[in-house]
Amino acid sequence: MMETESSLDMALVPANRGAFHKSFSSPDADVILGAKDHTLFRIHSWTLKTTSGWFRSLFSMPQRSPPPNNPETINLDEDSHTLESLLLMICGLPINPLTSYDEVDALLFAAEKYEMPGPVSLIRMLAMTPPLLDQPLRLYAAASRCGWEEETKCASAQSLALNIYAPEHQPILRKLHTSAALDLINLHRDRREGIRKRLNEQPFVTASTMASCPRCRWRIDHHAWRELKYRVVMEMDARPLGDTVVDVGLTEWPEAIACWDAKCPNTECTCVLYDKVETLRLIRDCIDSLPKST
Predict the structure, then answer these.
(1) What average pLDDT does the segment 266-275 reach?
(2) HSE (CB half, 13 Å, CA atoms) of 210?
């Protein structure tokens, strides 16, 4: 306990430098907080004690008596923007908009450090609004770390539109907890392997299917279908959402066009080998049945 009190005393210095933030400059406030860039914030100790477990514990310790009208400054590690956003939240004032996850991460770290559940709940709601909602991997990282199950599922579902193995996403994946990273990787892999498995089963053409024309029984080769299956699986690996498969790929890919144009090589038959409409419906149903979130 003596060691803790000593470290706290070292953070208390006379408020003789820095400028006060315009929204936190009331002379009636009995506490001064100092940001690391020397911006000062006057705030009532009652507000801090009722919204922060850390400050509640701090103020329960024996305190030195500061000079009248000259409270000591509690120097904190946060910059002025982070501290301003945090204090606006706990004071019920209009809050700063959150536009990047760099701000979110700094605020969450500070709110957790000072044991402030109010700001954490506000950040949780704001994370589900644009522009933060448009960054699914950053949302997934924050939500999985904080234990926000609904937001984690939402972010994992949105990540299906991304190739998480691309180099630009690696820095975020490295910051994930191991279990969260594995859950996300498994979701993407399971969708790819799920469509691969389904395309090799009935009612699709399979390895066990007799390679003969359904009309004239002429010997045929299903190479067009095999190439289309391979293209579908590779596309699901790069974009597991599957929208580019059903909305564009199965009608515009060269492999798809070759498959729908494939006919029996018997010149007296020329039967179309694959039912385009039914195959598209079946593939769409297969993709819709795949797992959608962690």
Answers:
(1) 91
(2) 8
- The answer to whether 137 and 156 have CB atoms below 8 angstroms apart is no
Spatial separation of the C-alpha atoms in residues 64 and 287, rounded to whole Å:
67
The predicted structure's pLDDT at residue 66: 66
3-state class of 13 per DSSP? strand
Is the bond preceding residue 291 a cis peptide, omega within 30 degrees?
no
pLDDT tens readout for residues 143-186: 999 999 999 999 999 999 999 999 999 999 999 999 999 999 99
Going by pLDDT thresholds of 50, 70 and 90, the confidence category of residue 208 is: low
pLDDT tens for each residue of 117-134: 999 999 999 999 999 999
Decide if pLDDT at 268 tops 50. yes
The strand pair at 31-34 and 40-43 is best described as antiparallel
Task: Please name the residues in contact with 198: beta carbons below 8 A apart, sequence gap of 6 or more.
Answer: 204, 286
Q: What are phi and psi of 109, to 5 degrees?
A: -60, -45
Nearest one of 178, 55, 159, 68 to 111, comparing CA atoms: 55
Nearest CA to 200 out of 208, 212, 188, 191 is that of 208
- DSSP characters for 222-263? -HHHHHHHHHHHHHHHH-TT-HHIIIIIHHHSHHHHHHHH-B
CB-based contact 21:41 (threshold 8 Å): yes
Amino acid identity of 234? M
pTM, to two decimals: 0.85
Size (the chain), residues: 294
Residue 140 one-letter amino acid: Y
